[in-house]
Amino acid sequence: MNARRATISDVARAAGVAASTASVVFSGKTPVSDATRERVMAAAKELGYTGPDPRAASLRRGRSGIVGVVIGDRLRAAFRDPVTTVMLDGLAEGVAAQGASLLLLRDDDTSEEPQLQSAPADAFVLVGCSTRLREALETIRGRGVPVVVVEGDAGEGVPQIRLDNRDAQAVIARHVASLGHDDVVLVTLPVAEGRAAGWIETAPLPAIAVDVTRDRLHGALDVFPDARVYASGGSFIDQGYAAGQAILAAPGPRPTAILAQSDMIAAGIIRAVQDAGLHVPDDVSVTGFDGVQIDGVAPLTLTTMVQPAAEKGRAAGVAVSQMLAGDEPADMLLTSVFRPGDTTGPAPRPGASGPDPSA
Amino acid sequence: MNARRATISDVARAAGVAASTASVVFSGKTPVSDATRERVMAAAKELGYTGPDPRAASLRRGRSGIVGVVIGDRLRAAFRDPVTTVMLDGLAEGVAAQGASLLLLRDDDTSEEPQLQSAPADAFVLVGCSTRLREALETIRGRGVPVVVVEGDAGEGVPQIRLDNRDAQAVIARHVASLGHDDVVLVTLPVAEGRAAGWIETAPLPAIAVDVTRDRLHGALDVFPDARVYASGGSFIDQGYAAGQAILAAPGPRPTAILAQSDMIAAGIIRAVQDAGLHVPDDVSVTGFDGVQIDGVAPLTLTTMVQPAAEKGRAAGVAVSQMLAGDEPADMLLTSVFRPGDTTGPAPRPGASGPDPSA
DNA sequence: TCAGCGTACCGAATCGATTCGATGGCGAAC
DNA sequence: GTTCGCCATCGAATCGATTCGGTACGCTGA
Question: C-alpha angle with apex A334: A332 to A336, nearest 5 degrees?
Fold first, then answer.
C-alpha cells in the first residue's frame, strides 16, 4: 500500500528501540534480550519489513555474497558442454558452502563488457582462458577483486585450478600404443576462438591459444610424435562426426586409432566410423577425454580419461573462499583417471579387416 | 599499494572538482566539459580508480542490475535439461538487453533459503512452479520485488510465460490418432517432486502438482481418453529407457504408439523399443515434446512438438524489464509447432509385425 | 555503601556513490 | 550596458544498514 517500503529505522522506531538494536536483531551478531527481539519482530511484521536491504547491507559490509563466473559469450555453448555444466554445478556447491551464489557473466565484447565493471561481485571465476578472457581478466584485476582461473593460465598472482591434461592424454595414448597402434590421428578441441576445423601442422606445431587443447595435444604427441592432427571446431557430437568423416576421407592409409580430446568429439567420430561401414574397435580404435555421460555411444563404453569436473568447480569455490578470507590459495592440480572401455582394441593387422584372430 | 582503494571523492579531490562532478563523468548522465572530463579521468588513472563501486551505486540507485533466476535445488539437473538451458540462454539474452545479468539461485530448502532473502536482485524469475517454488515465491513477494514465472501458475499478480502445453499435446496426439492408433501409452514428466516412476491412475486422475505434466497429460487424454499413463521419474534418456522397458514388460497387448512428454524420454523409449528387437515406427510409434536436439535418436527424426524455448526465456526477460519499468506485463502464451519425423507411422495391423503393406 | 563488572542498548560515524536544486560565470540579445 | 538564459559545476542530502565506543543499569562482593 505504502509507496515507500519500510526501512530498519522505521521498524526500530515502531518498536521503540535504536536502529542499531533492530539491526542486530536481524543479524544476530550481538546478544539481544528476548523481550526486545520480540518487539522488533512484531514491529517488522506490522510494517511488512522482511529483512535488511541487501544493497545497503553489502555496501556497509563490503561484501555482496556474489561470485561472478565468466563463461563464453554465449551461455548456450557453455550449457551444451557437459563438462562445463558439471563444473558449474560443483562451483555452485562450493560457493554455496560459504553462502554465496553465482552471477553468470558473458564476456561479450560487443557491449564493452560493462557487466564486469558494474557487477557487484566479491570475486570472479574465469573458466578457460581464451584471448577474450584475458581482457576480462585485466578488467577484473583492475578492480582489485580476487580472481580464480579454471583451466587456463592467467599469469602470476592468479590461482589456477588445473587438470593434468598433458599427462592424462599421454596415459591414454600409451594405452593405445600398447595395443599395437602406430598410425593414429589426434582430434583436438578448437585451437583458437571461432577457428574452423581442419588439419593442422605439427612440424612446427603452431601456437595454440587454448591451454587445454595445447596441453592435451602435447601429451598425445609425447607418445605419438608423428601423428596427424585434426583440429575440430568444437566439443560437440556433430563436430566430431564431421572430423571423423574428414579423417576417413583423407588420402593415405586409414588410421587404426583416433584419439579425441573430448568424449563428445569421440562419440561423433565413432558414429562416423560406423556410418562408413567400419567397426569400433575392430577396424578403428577411438578414445575420448572427460569421462562424461554421453548418450550417443551406447552400447559401447568409451575408453577415456575421467576428469573430476565437479571437483574442479568445488576447488574453485574453495579457492575463492580463501582469497576472500585474505589468504592466497595455492594452485591446484587435479588428476584424471583412466577408464578402459570397449572402443579400443588391438591394432588390426595390415590388410585384415576383422578383429585379430590371434589376439 | 594502498590499503584502501580510492573512492570517487579521492578522484574528485585529486582532479580539483566536486565528487558530484566526478560522478557524472563516469555515469555520463549530465554534460561535462571536455577539460573537466579529462582531468577526472587522469586523476582516476593516477589513483587506480576503475569506476564506481557497484555496491554503493546500487544502493543509491535502488537497482543492482541483477535478475535472480530460481531453478531446482540442483543446478546440474537444470543444466542437464536441454530445454532449461536453452531457455536460460534466451533469458540471459533478454535481460542482457537491459544491461542486467543472471544470478543463479537454488531453492535449497535445507539452508532456509537465505539466498532469496539476501540476494540483491531487482527481480526474480521462477522456472516451473513446483511446491518448493511456491515457498520461494512467498519469500520473494514478501520482499516486494517483481517476479515472473515461466511454465507455472503462481496466482494472480504474477505474470506468466506459458506454453500451449495442452493444445500442443493434443495436436500431436491427433496426428497419432490419424495414423490409426488407438492403443497408446502416455509417458509423462514427473508428477511431483522426487516421485518415483510408475503407472498412474486416470480414473480418477490424481492431482498433479507440476503444471507442465498436468497440462500435457490433459491434452493427450483429450484425444485418447482411455490411454494408460506411465509417469517417468525425470526428463532424461535413461528414465525414458526405463519407462520403455516397463511399458513393454507390462501385461496385456503391446501399445502401438507411445506418446512421451519430452524428447529425452522419447529417445530413451525408442532405444528400449529397439533393444527389445522391435522397430520404430513399424511396431511402435513414438512421439516426443520440446523439439530439442537429441543425440540418441539418429538416424531417426523424432516426431515432436517444437517449443520456442529460447523465446520463452527472452519473453521472461522482456516481462522483467516491463515490471522494472513499472508496467504490469500481460501473461504470455507461446505456441509450439508440430514437427513430423519418422518415428511415427501407421498403426500396425493386429498380428502383423512389419509395416502395413497396404499403406 | 560503594567499587567493580557484565549485559543490553544507544548514537553517531561510516560505507561510496548519486541526485537535484542552487550558483556562478559567460555569451547573446535588446 | 544591462538583463536574460544557459551551461557547467558545486554542495548537501540521501540511499539503508552496520559497527563500535560508550553509557546506564542492575548485581555481586568487600
Answer: 170
